[in-house]
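Entry 12.
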Amino acid sequence: MKTFSAYIIFIVVLIFFLRKEGLGRLPAALYVPLCWMVLILSRSFSQWLQLRGDLSGMEAEMEGNPIDAAFLLVLIMLGLGILYLKRIDVSGIIKNNKSLFMLYGFALLSLLWADFPLIAFKRWTKWFGSLIMVLVILSEVDYKGAIKSLIKRCAYALIPLSIVFIKFVPSLGRSYTRSGIADYHGVATQKNQYGILLLICGIYFAWELIVMWRKKDFEALKKIGYVNLLFLVVILWQLFFIDSKTSIICLMLGIGVIFLLGHPFFKKYPHKARNAIIALAIVVALLQHFIDIKGTIISSAGRVPTLTDRTILWTEILKVPTNPLVGTGWDNFWLGDRIIPLWEKWAWHPRNAHNGYLEIYLYLGWTGIALLFFALWAGFKKSAALLISDFEYGCLSLSFFIIALFFNYSESAFHRMSPVWFFGLLFYLVKMPRELKAREPGITLSF
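Predicted 3D structure (tokens):
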């Protein structure tokens, strides 16, 4: 009875926030990326239906889930169909995003030397699917409104539902580690994934609240400001409750970036923000070299210097023979016999490097690292340029950029269907030809 009542309250709360926000109708084309966002921010389609198979260990890594594969393929095909109907300028998009498409292209080329090319292709397709969904969103006439609508819908649905799962449906909202410690993960499948959901929504709510305050938009503050503040408080509560240190630090960092960039000096001279960030990065690198600020931050966050054995894992991974120039092929390192020694050493069976840069190196070697650097540098320049054309949105873009750099130090978030990669594509990696804005809005449907 309590569970049923909790679901009823959740539905009422969801409807209330949707009406209070006044999001209105959602364009029909955006239902496809909305489904994609819900999946990457929570759990897979088969897990929502509770239809997961009995595969485990290496078998699960090799086989995957056919239900999820079919559903994602349908979404990708629908996304491609939408882009075709919109007659987007494909050549213009590639021209504006050369480094990004070179990274995707080289990852696809790596199937030639991958041990399991079919699996690599399937995983590359999902990774490419995130790019397709982002193009669908950014090809909207009011793409900023579309982004707001999608993020708010996800936040209003997934965060309250996570609390319901954790509190009233423990079979869905909790799990336990091998040592018996509770892992509270809500609509996700483990706490770090739930932490990413809270991090992304928290940054957006905080940014919107700060912008309303800076602009002295008291009417907006009165209408939806308290909703943003309420969700921000809930997000912080949940982050500390689940003890997701990486997401907590990144949220504080992201909000700090938005605040600092709002200084009158940068608002007056937005073009100087890029130089300031580059200088800051150099200073941080020098401080790390001389006084180990990384260790200080990790210790102050209540974590051991090895980041829960991550640094030890990195050392062991680098001992595994790979091609340093081109890697083992896209998303192929964690397949086959090469990782058996790692799984024998760690009972928790690592399935990624817990470092985004190392992960790309394992898959694509130093060539992949170089291409990733060029893509990130192009994204940084786009974010810095936004400060001139749209200062507040540029602050949000740079915040997501810096968060991604730090987040990938302790987590792998540049590959597969990572939310960090998806929102990176959305906010700073993809640059659309501006002539796309001349289109008429598409057909709309109710939420």
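Annotation: The longest helix spans residues 356-389. The two ends are 28 Å apart (CA to CA).
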